[in-house]
Design brief:
This protein has one domain. The protein contains six helices and no strands. Helix 4 packs antiparallel against helix 6. The radius of gyration is 14 Å and the shape is globular. This is DoxX family protein. Keywords: Membrane, Transmembrane, Transmembrane helix.
Length: 117
Amino acid sequence: MKKDAAALAGMLATMGVLHFAVPRPFDSIVPRSLPGRRRTWTYLSGAAELACAAAIAHPRTRRAGALAAAGLFVGVFPANIKMAVDARRATPVRQAIAFGRLPLQVPLVLWARRVAR
Protein backbone atom coordinates (compact mmCIF):
# COMPACT_ATOMS: atom_id res chain seq x y z
CA MET A 1 0.00 0.00 0.00
CA LYS A 2 1.31 3.45 -0.82
CA LYS A 3 2.46 5.56 2.14
CA ASP A 4 -0.18 8.24 1.62
CA ALA A 5 -2.98 5.68 1.45
CA ALA A 6 -1.64 3.74 4.44
CA ALA A 7 -1.42 6.89 6.54
CA LEU A 8 -4.95 7.97 5.61
CA ALA A 9 -6.34 4.49 6.30
CA GLY A 10 -4.51 4.43 9.64
CA MET A 11 -5.81 7.83 10.68
CA LEU A 12 -9.39 6.91 9.74
CA ALA A 13 -9.15 3.54 11.50
CA THR A 14 -7.82 5.19 14.66
CA MET A 15 -10.57 7.79 14.70
CA GLY A 16 -13.20 5.16 13.91
CA VAL A 17 -12.09 3.01 16.86
CA LEU A 18 -12.09 6.07 19.14
CA HIS A 19 -15.74 6.73 18.26
CA PHE A 20 -16.56 3.37 19.87
CA ALA A 21 -13.95 3.29 22.63
CA VAL A 22 -14.45 6.86 23.88
CA PRO A 23 -17.73 8.11 22.39
CA ARG A 24 -18.58 10.93 24.80
CA PRO A 25 -16.38 13.66 23.19
CA PHE A 26 -17.87 12.81 19.80
CA ASP A 27 -21.42 12.84 21.19
CA SER A 28 -20.88 16.39 22.40
CA ILE A 29 -20.19 17.76 18.91
CA VAL A 30 -23.11 16.12 17.12
CA PRO A 31 -25.31 19.01 15.92
CA ARG A 32 -28.61 19.18 17.81
CA SER A 33 -30.47 19.54 14.52
CA LEU A 34 -29.81 15.89 13.63
CA PRO A 35 -32.70 13.57 14.51
CA GLY A 36 -32.28 10.73 16.95
CA ARG A 37 -29.73 10.10 19.66
CA ARG A 38 -26.29 11.65 19.52
CA ARG A 39 -24.64 8.33 20.39
CA THR A 40 -26.21 6.77 17.29
CA TRP A 41 -24.59 9.45 15.12
CA THR A 42 -21.27 8.93 16.90
CA TYR A 43 -21.38 5.21 16.17
CA LEU A 44 -22.52 5.74 12.57
CA SER A 45 -19.70 8.17 11.86
CA GLY A 46 -17.21 5.83 13.53
CA ALA A 47 -18.44 2.94 11.39
CA ALA A 48 -18.16 5.14 8.29
CA GLU A 49 -14.55 5.97 9.17
CA LEU A 50 -13.75 2.30 9.67
CA ALA A 51 -15.41 1.40 6.36
CA CYS A 52 -13.44 4.10 4.53
CA ALA A 53 -10.21 2.91 6.17
CA ALA A 54 -10.87 -0.68 5.09
CA ALA A 55 -11.70 0.39 1.54
CA ILE A 56 -8.58 2.55 1.28
CA ALA A 57 -6.42 -0.31 2.55
CA HIS A 58 -7.36 -2.52 -0.40
CA PRO A 59 -6.06 -1.48 -3.84
CA ARG A 60 -9.26 -2.52 -5.63
CA THR A 61 -11.46 -0.29 -3.49
CA ARG A 62 -8.93 2.43 -2.67
CA ARG A 63 -10.35 5.02 -5.06
CA ALA A 64 -13.94 4.56 -3.87
CA GLY A 65 -12.84 4.51 -0.23
CA ALA A 66 -10.79 7.68 -0.59
CA LEU A 67 -13.63 9.50 -2.36
CA ALA A 68 -16.00 8.34 0.38
CA ALA A 69 -13.51 9.65 2.97
CA ALA A 70 -13.40 13.03 1.22
CA GLY A 71 -17.20 13.12 1.39
CA LEU A 72 -17.12 12.09 5.03
CA PHE A 73 -14.69 14.90 5.86
CA VAL A 74 -17.08 17.37 4.25
CA GLY A 75 -20.07 15.74 5.96
CA VAL A 76 -18.66 16.03 9.48
CA PHE A 77 -17.72 19.70 9.04
CA PRO A 78 -20.94 20.87 10.79
CA ALA A 79 -19.75 19.01 13.91
CA ASN A 80 -16.50 20.97 13.78
CA ILE A 81 -18.46 24.20 13.47
CA LYS A 82 -20.58 23.21 16.48
CA MET A 83 -17.42 22.42 18.43
CA ALA A 84 -16.03 25.89 17.64
CA VAL A 85 -19.29 27.64 18.54
CA ASP A 86 -19.51 25.73 21.82
CA ALA A 87 -15.89 26.64 22.66
CA ARG A 88 -16.41 30.40 22.49
CA ARG A 89 -16.42 30.62 26.29
CA ALA A 90 -13.97 27.78 26.91
CA THR A 91 -10.33 27.94 27.90
CA PRO A 92 -7.90 29.39 25.35
CA VAL A 93 -6.44 25.93 24.72
CA ARG A 94 -9.86 24.42 24.01
CA GLN A 95 -10.72 27.37 21.78
CA ALA A 96 -7.48 26.90 19.83
CA ILE A 97 -8.25 23.21 19.31
CA ALA A 98 -11.85 23.86 18.30
CA PHE A 99 -11.10 26.70 15.89
CA GLY A 100 -7.93 25.01 14.63
CA ARG A 101 -9.95 22.03 13.44
CA LEU A 102 -11.99 24.13 11.03
CA PRO A 103 -9.26 24.81 8.43
CA LEU A 104 -7.87 21.28 8.84
CA GLN A 105 -10.83 19.85 6.95
CA VAL A 106 -9.50 21.29 3.68
CA PRO A 107 -6.18 19.41 3.73
CA LEU A 108 -8.00 16.25 4.82
CA VAL A 109 -10.31 16.45 1.81
CA LEU A 110 -7.35 17.17 -0.48
CA TRP A 111 -5.41 14.27 1.02
CA ALA A 112 -8.29 11.88 0.39
CA ARG A 113 -8.67 13.14 -3.18
CA ARG A 114 -4.94 12.66 -3.75
CA VAL A 115 -5.18 9.06 -2.53
CA ALA A 116 -8.16 8.53 -4.85
CA ARG A 117 -6.02 9.34 -7.90
